[in-house]
Amino acid sequence: MTTTDPQTDTPTAPPRVPHLSVDERAARGRAARREVPRAGHSALVTGGRADPVEVLDEGSAARVAELVPIRYGRMLVSPFTFYRGAAAVMAHDLGPTPRAGLNVQLCGDAHLANFGGFASPERSFVFDLNDFDETLRGPFEWDVKRLAASFEVAGRDRDFTDIQRRTAVQTSVRAYREAMRSFASMRNLDVWYARLDLTQLVAELRANRDKRQAKLVERTAAKAQTKDSMRALDKLTTVVDGEPRIVSHPPLIVPISELADAEEAEALETTIRDLVRNYRHTLQRDRRQLLEAFHYVDLARKVVGVGSVGTRCWIMLLLGRDERDPLFLQIKEAGESVLEPLLGHSSFANHGQRIVEGQRLMQAASDIFLGWIRNTRTLEGGAPRDFYVRQLWDWKTSADLDSILPKGLELYAQACGWTLARAHARSGDRVAIATYLGKSDVFDCAVADFAASYADLNERDYEALSAAAKSGRIAVEEGL
């Protein structure tokens, strides 16, 4: 396959892909270790850093103004919820830290709450990363450090002891290191097909004589399997003139009919229908045909997440053979990754495509309706906006971090570390990374030290945001 030079309109050959031997790849890892010692990853540079409140507020102008106070209200629930919403702050803090020069496709926001279970296209229950809004290619250490620090912050939120927190943090990093070393010895296709599903997870728990956790995982999965489009239909809609309509629950869910008058709503719906037609072309042909069997019914704006609050997110209801054959799609705004100011712009012109391509590369199994669009006419005025599309609910679940116990957090850390390594092994040089990490716990301990220091910094940043709210510098809406 050839590409075309945009200046001369002449065919050009695609760049050659280098194929190094295993020994050459291992040599890259050893060289990186000499250049950037593993113990150096404990470093956290705080001098001269930007005001965290300013960093957080930089993107507010591009968000829906009336929803920004909800974002801050959710972040101020605890230092842990602050951490969840402060990916941009941590990206700036990671910038000066050591880099081994071994790049992968980054999640960009790999904290523990962005892992969870969902349905694979084959309808098995898999555990994987599930948020890719900030995905970009970059240093593998950045994802590992964000994940590790999230266990430290979450452990503090649960009042776990220093030892309990340290155990969970180091478990996440050790699981990553050991999994990467395992993937380094595997064939390419075996790495690509590797996944952590419910059956495997329960079997491992029972093998470790942890029947209580095994039963908890089974109950969680069983509950998650009821969270699908049929559940969304029952929970999020009411019948109007014989057809389901999305219920209003402002400001968290607002039907399109309440966001505009009748004439504007009709114009918005026309725009949405055109967008969906364009979105179909980002799907595989068989999935496109499946989507075309559904027809549009209703649309609403929905508030989601913590850091995402204020970005434009829509839920769309479509129906198939009858009113009990629903499909709910989530259409979420895709802006610039928080990593781009530090690592350079994405190679994709559409940020929705950046997210989708990153997700497909990192996940073992992705939503069959995952695609992207660009709205050039805009729904609410202003510049053109990129969006990505996926199913709203498809057996999605995550760990109950409000009630998790130390042993449960440790087991969860092991699953997250393995999963992140698998995601990185698909896109980076797993042999070089594994060689760099080595057999000892030097890297584990260094990142655990970093995590403890960063949790301290996170608490100070949380207090800074709290002070900004009390002074009136930022507006906050609590309890939503």
Q: What would you note in describing this structure?
A:
This protein has helices at residues 22-35, 52-57, 68-75, 79-85, 87-94, 140-157, 162-184, 188-193, 198-207, 211-224, 229-236, 256-259, 262-280, 285-291, 340-343, 351-362, 406-427, 430-437, 442-471, and strands at 3-4, 11-12, 103-106, 115-119, 125-129, 136-139, 196-197, 237-240, 243-246, 253-255, 295-302, 313-319, 326-334, 371-375, 385-391. The protein has 480 residues and is of the alpha+beta class. The chain has two domains: 18-223 and 401-471, no CATH class; 229-391, no CATH class. The strands form five sheets. A six-stranded antiparallel beta sheet has the order 10-11-12-13-15-14, sandwiched between helices. It has a three-stranded antiparallel beta sheet with strand order 4-5-7. Strands 1-2 form a two-stranded antiparallel sheet. Helix 1 (22-35) crosses helix 18 (430-437), helix 7 (162-184) packs across helix 18 (430-437) and helix 9 runs antiparallel to helix 10. The radius of gyration is 23 Å and the shape is globular.
